[in-house]
Amino acid sequence: MTILSVMENELTGSLPSTTELPNLEMLYLADNNFSGPFPSFITNASKLSVLNLGLNSFSGIIPSAIGNLRYLEWLVLYYNYFTSSTQDLSFLSSLTNCTNMKHLELTGNPLNSILPSSIGNLPRSLESLYMNECNISGNIPKEINNLNNLIDLHLEDNELIGSVPIMINALHKLQGLYLQNNKLEGSIPDNLCHLNSLVELQLDGNKLSGSIPPCLGNLSTLRRLSLGFNMLTSVIPSTLGKLKDILYLNLSSNSLNASLPSDIGNLKVAINIDLSRNLLLGDIPPTVGSLRNLQYLSLGYNKLQGSVPESFGYSISLEFLDLSSNNLSGVIPKSLEALLYLKYLNLSFNQLRGEIPTRGCFANFSAESFMGNFALCGSPQLKVPPCKRTTHQKTKVLLIVLPLSTVLTLVVLVLLFVLLK
Question: What is the pLDDT of residue 87?
């Protein structure tokens, strides 16, 4: 096997166009400063199976002649300056000849094209497709469903419009679907619930509306669910409590209303939960305190009421807790002093009262953590009034010891008074 690797050497300049490497099977030129057009000699390396030109400054078009490399399995061109001379990314069609291709990565190239239907002509062997940050626009063509061996599909950080394809469930092997930070509209299709191998679903940063499909709770393999920064309404389905292996749950910056489901306490291995900037009502369920692996919890900017649960003291891994800008009342539980890893606490702009705890992690918090709660008291450095101390003086009972003769005289006088009355 012939391998040429000159990665991470900060080499510069253009590559020669006449180099003959007929037996070359793997070429790694990533993470240098090579520039110029796509090296033409590469398209003549007929035995090439791996080509990595990532993190350079190559520019110009990706030639259709790349389809001559019929043994190509990995094509990695990320973060260069490749463009497309046509709106249909014609080089994609040429890759049909690469019948063994498993990995195609074009991330970070200014392709400036509409995502063409010819994407469905890519080899059926393809397992991972990365076309994020490519300034791609248009709808996601239904032909993408032809790639039924895809495991990872990355189309995030583009200008895609339209809806999430309803028949995307044809990609039954899909483990990662990344469509975040586009301009997708419409509802989240129930058909996503048929992707039984899905590990990560990221649809945040779009214009999706409607409700969260309750059937997403049936995706038992799910580790990350990100639906934040959309226009979703209705409730948080209680069925999401069935996601026993979820690590990251982000539903922030929507218009979700109603109460937090108590089933949130079932997410035992969750590390990060962000439900901030919604319209959530009611009390914070005390079951949140059973999430001992939770490191990040944000419930800020909602309409939550009631008290801060004492059970938060059992969330021993918490490093970040934001309950700001709600309608929470009552005292700050002293149980929070036990959160030894808590580095960020925001309880501002609520209706909390009483003394701010001073021990444990509270020694490190500033006034910003508590501002906007006008009935709190504590240390002057927290910019709150000092707490009024009430002194409970014990009433001392003066015991007067009288002589026995005096006591007997008093008894006799009382008896005479009663008899003569």
Answer: 66
DSSP 97-148: G-TT--EEE-TT-----B--GGGGGS-TT--EEE--SS--EEE--GGGGG-T
Question: For 391-409, what is each residue's pLDDT tens digit?
Answer: 544 433 333 344 655 656 6
Angle at 274 between CA 322 and CA 215, to 5 degrees: 150
Q: How far is residue 166 from each of residues 100, 143, 163, 213, measured CA to CA in Å? A: 28, 12, 8, 13
Instruction: Supply the pLDDT for residue 390.
Output: 63
- The DSSP annotation for 193-226 comes to GG-TT--EEE--SSEEEEPPPGGGGG-TT--EEE
Domains, the chain, ordered by start: 1-161 (3.80.10.10), 280-389 (3.80.10.10)
- Mind listing the pLDDT tens digit for each residue in 135-165? 999 999 999 999 999 999 999 999 999 999 9
Identify the pLDDT of residue 4: 57
- Give φ, ψ of 40 to 5 degrees: -65, -30
What's the pLDDT band for 40 if we cut at 50, 70, 90? Answer: confident
Residue carrying structure tokens 């991330």: 107
User: Could you give the 3-state DSSP secondary structure of residue 396?
Assistant: coil
pLDDT at 400: 39
Helices assigned H by DSSP within 42-112 = 90-94
Size of the chain in residues: 421
CA angle (25 as vertex; 22, 29 as ends), nearest 5: 100
Query: Is residue 409 within a helix (H) or strand (E), and if so which, with residue range?
Result: helix 404-420
For β-strands 329-330 and 320-322, DSSP reports them as unpaired
Assess contact for 220 and 246: CB atoms under 8 A.
Answer: no
| Residue-wise DSSP of 339-381 | -TT--EEE--SSEEEEEPP-SGGGGG--GGGTTT-TEEE--GG
What is the β-pairing status of strands 74-76 and 103-105? parallel
| Global pTM value | 0.88
Q: Of 301, 347, 298, nearest to 318 (Cα)? A: 298
- Average pLDDT of the segment spanning 306-333: 97
Average pLDDT of the residues of the chain: 90
